[in-house]
Amino acid sequence: MTHCLIHKFSYYTDLNKDERALLLQLEDRKISYKAGECIAAKGDPCDHLYILHDGWAYVSSTLDVKLRSIFDVRLNADFVGLSDLAFQHHLHDFYALTNVVVCPFPKKNLGAMFDQSPKLRDVFLLILSREQAIAKERVISIGRRTAIERVAHFLMELNVRHSLLYPSEDTVFDFPLTLDHMGDLLGLSPVHVSRSMSMLKENGYITYNRTRVKILQMDKLITMSGFNPVFLEKPERMIPQELEYAEA
Amino acid sequence: MTHCLIHKFSYYTDLNKDERALLLQLEDRKISYKAGECIAAKGDPCDHLYILHDGWAYVSSTLDVKLRSIFDVRLNADFVGLSDLAFQHHLHDFYALTNVVVCPFPKKNLGAMFDQSPKLRDVFLLILSREQAIAKERVISIGRRTAIERVAHFLMELNVRHSLLYPSEDTVFDFPLTLDHMGDLLGLSPVHVSRSMSMLKENGYITYNRTRVKILQMDKLITMSGFNPVFLEKPERMIPQELEYAEA
DNA sequence: CGTTCGGTTGAGCTTTGTCAAACCGCGTGG
DNA sequence: CCACGCGGTTTGACAAAGCTCAACCGAACG
After folding, report:
1. Count of CB atoms within 10 A of residue A87's CB?
2. Strand C interface, protein residues by Cβ within 7 Å
């Protein structure tokens, strides 16, 4: 995965030479962060977006000393900072969960890119839209599902997102999250997350250790959590009508 | 408020004649729905967006017969259907909460509009971004705040959104939501919402009846709920760098 | 080895949910 | 004009889900 942006965009549409060149321009530098470091913090000037090139990151917001919300986890080829796109200062915090390398690019270059390629613009909109859909699923989970359903649902989400990146591994994935992360993601206490995970293991639905999760009974997890992967679905379902361009 | 789109966009930027004309083209028809009617349902083909011209609407998703999540409430001049922008079929349900009138316009016209005016395109991105920020605040509320804090926070959000529309009324606003709506919005049971509202009234922070809410002690509500209006803030804070155009 | 960080487990407590009854305002129809 | 019924709200008693605290464990790492 040397060119994340191209990889990401071509997931949604076919790219010609010019479009690839435009995307390559964006991805000029690389920056590394160690696990736990802050990539950007609330209040920082927000003039760059990042593409996650390697590792895991997450988007969060800290209210009180002991009150944190994690909105989402960012995997390979995901954008970091997209949620603050239109703001001059970051509204949220962005942390490296593992060691990461990111490609920063100035937000102001986006405008030029959109001018030159409406197609890329629309794919960008599509990506924004997908992120919104993921966020809405989280609201459903936190607001209306029980603890164990939330955990099951989130594991299924991770499994799908992981297998879209690495199609060969469709039931196992890395799992660098701690119970605290899980709790803040799902609106639970870390000890209750632990109990829920244990129950899933006891039922024989999953196995896991500190670093990896393996899905054993996907069907059970799907039915118990009401998981429906449309919101992460393959491009043919997601291409918006605006995207019907004649290939010039 | 005869031209909602123009009103909405000029909240974020100054519009010249051409831009106004472009926006007017979108707003050609009007459709009315009675309170409770469905404007668009999950699975319906998604080829139109709507601007809410009058009344309240909401975005929701129904899981089980007795499990519903409401993601957001839509007020005057808000978009309806934006969250499914990039999908060919709706992912969510859109209901009229009161009698409403909406202006539909075909999604495919957006592309042409963006081609003709990068400025409008960027304002559109900005609006999308603001909606995401509202969604994130909801995640924080549901995941990490107590029942009474959630209610207080939501009332403050409504108060700010209302007063942006009607600056003369800055502590009173219409309130057509039932306890069921509130519960599904905030991840609570309707009876617990009732208790929370009663407590806010007993404390002297608010008064309310079936149709209106009045804020009595805004400072108390703000501190107790950790409300911070940046995520709804005035345009000068929100204009993204891409928006710095020379007025042609 | 000892320390640290994270995970597990148990006991007791708090918050919120459920169920059911009573209530209230309002519109309808006798 | 009054009685009724309907949709929504309030209140109380009780149950359940999830939280907190604290002790303990095990792996990783210096």
Report:
1. 22
2. A 178-180, 190-191, 194-195, 197-198, 210; B 146-148, 187-189, 191-192
Would you state the structure tokens that stand for residue A198, as one six-digit string? 């244990």
CA A101: distance to chain centroid?
15
What residues of chain B, 3 to 42, have a C-beta less than 8 Å from chain A? none
* Residues 96-115 of chain B whose Cβ lies under 8 A from any Cβ of chain A: 107-108, 110-111, 114-115
How many residues does the structure list for chain A? 248
Distance between CA A83 and CA A181 in Å, rounded? 19
Q: Do A115 and B118 touch (CB under 8 A)?
A: yes
> Which amino acid is it at A41?
A
- CA atoms B122, A135, A35, A56: torsion sign: negative
In the predicted model, is pLDDT for residue B188 greater than 60? Answer: yes
pLDDT digits (tens, 9 = 90+) for A13-66: 889 999 999 888 887 789 999 999 999 999 999 999 999 999 999 999 998 878
pLDDT at position B104 over 60: yes
Closest CA to B16 of B117, B130, B144, B138: B117
Question: How many CB atoms sit inside 10 A of residue B201's CB?
Answer: 13
The whole-model pTM stands at: 0.92
Average pLDDT, chain A: 89
Res A233: pLDDT = 67
**Beta strands per DSSP E along A21-159:** 31-33, 38-40, 48-54, 57-62, 68-74, 79-80, 93-96, 100-106
Q: Grade residue A235 by pLDDT with cuts at 50, 70 and 90.
A: very low
Residue B93, chain A, CB below 8 Å: the answer is no
What's the confidence (pLDDT) of residue A234?
53
Q: B108-129: string of b/e by CB count within 10 Å (b at 16+)?
A: ebbbebbeebbbbbbbbbbbbb
pLDDT confidence of residue A238:
46
pLDDT score at A237:
44
Which bases of strand D sit closer than 7 A to a protein CB? Answer: 8-12, 17-22, 27
Distance B210 CA to C26 C1' (A): 12
